[in-house]
Amino acid sequence: MRKKILVICGIMICTILVASGYYKNVNTMPVQLYFVDSSMQRLLPSDFTVKTDDTEKAAKAVIRGLIKGRDNNPKIMRLIPNIKNGLTVKVKDQTAYVNMTGVWVAAHSDLRQHETLTIYSIVNSLTSVKGIMNVKFTIDHKVQKDFKGFCDMRDTFIPDYYV
Q: How far apart are CA 61 and CA 48, in angstroms?
């Protein structure tokens, strides 16, 4: 009887410690999501934690985070259209390969500044993931000359924190 009580107490204590966050998940990765400021002029970093230490899974979580946005912060905006499967990402050899669907591209703003901010929102966010150094874009799985007429999408992008 005494052993049962000790085992039950031990289970309860472990449950309380896990629920309270005392034991944090060691499989997490801190990253930065870059959103556009409310005046649509520059990018602002926002702390974000992904619940994995796998680079490709973290990249997918970053894309989901950018699409979702930050509802609780009126100082930032989300330029990325919320189109199901509009953006997908794969990681290979420290490069994130982001595919945009034609539907997603069509739903995006045509303004030059919005195009640049969107590209670097994605690039800066993905390169904050451990193991990603640069980003390459395709549209409907094909390398295109441009996105909305301004950024050369044939390039491999590196972060630019002064956009």
A: 10
Amino acid at 136: K
pTM comes to: 0.82
Which tens digit of pLDDT belongs to each residue from 48-60? 999 998 999 999 9
Beta bridge partners of 36: 43, 77
The domain limits of the chain are 26-157
